[in-house]
Amino acid sequence: MHAFPDPHPDRRRFLAMTGATILTSQAGAAQDPPLAPPDKQPPHVRVPEPVAKTVGWAVVGLGQLALEEVLPAFAKCRLSKPVALVSGHPDKAKKVAAVYGIDPKNVYDYENYDTIAKNPQVDVIYVILPNSLHAEYTVRGLKAGKHVLCEKPMAATVAECERMIAAGKEAKRKLMIAYRLRHEPFNRTAIDLCRKGEVGKIKLITASNGQDTKAPNIRLSKALAGGPVEDVGVYCLNAARYLTGEEPTEVTAVAVRPKDDPRFREVAESVAFTLRFPSGTVAVCDCSFGVAGVRRYTVQGAAATLSMDGAFGYAGQELVLEKDKRKAKFDLSPVNHFAAEMDYFSTCVLKNENPLTPGEEGLADVRAIIAIAEATRTGRPVPIPR
Ligand code: NAD
């Protein structure tokens, strides 16, 4: 008879030494717990509930954010389904459509984009293009009768933002600006703590957001409305607004553009800016395209200090409240920011509710961004018009 080699000789030797026996498939004594799982799904595994209606999404622009974050995040959505793509690169778009099960007939380019109006499968358009193109593709999307989620910053100018808001009103369609942090539990908890007075009167906020941006990149192009404030500084600005719940009235700012680094021919490398709020709170913010990377804020209140490391990243937020010499670290279940944000907007569409961050929210940031740019040029405090 042929002897098969023993696949577990070490385990058998160990069991023999300890006197233990190898388990067989025979049932054990009556009091032993069952080893095989029960017929029914164990209670700790959530069985998804079917949803009555899903919302069809078209993604406009297949760059890094769309390909690496947004499209994969649809797998974690309950209500939002990718059903169409808009791209200037037909081969890439076809390939991506095949991966996500999108009908090749639902792949558009930037010329025939407006014909998306005739596609009843598309409810929402997600604009993920360079900042300078947000206004045009948002307005065209709204005119096509679709709801629009537009990436931050909303647009390059106040006039563009106003046109986008007006287009939404005229088309009776919803416009939301993609501030994903408003849909993740750590930043939401920080806002709650500030609103409930846990830190007392907020005196100072410090916020930093930086990265090392390599060329070529849309963020380094003035024509595409790049720049550190527009790209990463907007997180500090938006956080100072959502943590205080106030609108800043005045800014000061300093920009640095090293002459020996060709990446910064058109935009600054770093900008430091301050925001003055009506209650007296001052926010001190900095942002950069030339640093290893810090993404954090601190809220210094009269009663406590709240801080968040990793505040602006896609994951890794760490929220700490320091009060009466004791530190409390918050243990919250993280979510996929993009899935949470998309399902939130789908809910707004299904329930006909106004989103938390409509065009007016994006416009408030753009007003401040424009004032910061002026302050860097003049070196003087600049009021932010309301
Ligand atoms: P990207 O450069 O990787 O992608 C931009 C896409 O736009 C590309 O597919 C490009 O082909 C296309 N495009 C169309 N017309 C173009 C033109 N005239 N010039 C250049 N590109 C053109 O950029 P990205 O990192 O995906 O960023 C896109 C947008 O998303 C930006 O507004 C950015 O601020 C925003 N963003 C948001 C987050 C977030 O966390 N919410 C993160 C990253 C980027």
Protein model, in words:
The chain is α/β, with parallel strands linked by helices. Helix content is 30%, strand content 21%. The protein is built from nine helices and 15 strands. Helix 5 runs antiparallel to helix 9. Bound molecules: nicotinamide-adenine-dinucleotide (NAD). The site of nicotinamide-adenine-dinucleotide has 19 residues, from helix 2.
Question: Sheet bearing the most strands, described?
Answer: 9 strands, mixed
Q: Count every beta strand, where a strand is a DSSP E run of 2 or more residues.
A: 15
Q: What's the N-to-C terminus distance?
A: 91 Å
Total number of helical segments? 9
Strand content: 15-25%
Which cofactor or ligand species appear?
A: nicotinamide-adenine-dinucleotide
Whole-angstrom Rg: 26 Å
Question: What percentage of residues falls in helices of 4 or more residues?
Answer: 25-40%
What is the average of the pLDDT values?
93
Low-confidence stretches: 1-28
Strand order of the largest sheet: 14-13-12-11-7-10-9-8-15
Features:
9 helices; 30% helix; 386 residues; binds nicotinamide-adenine-dinucleotide; alpha/beta; nine-stranded mixed β-sheet
SSE layout and pairings?
Elements: H1 9-18, E1 55-60, H2 64-73, E2 80-86, H3 90-99, E3 107-108, E4 124-127, H4 134-143, E5 147-151, H5 158-171, E6 175-178, H6 185-195, E7 202-210, H7 228-244, E8 250-256, E9 270-276, E10 282-288, E11 295-301, E12 305-309, E13 318-323, E14 326-329, H8 337-351, H9 359-378, E15 382-383
Parallel strand pairs: 1-2, 1-4, 2-3, 4-5, 5-6, 7-10
Antiparallel strand pairs: 7-11, 8-9, 8-15, 9-10, 11-12, 12-13, 13-14
Helix pairs in contact: 4-5, 5-9, 7-9
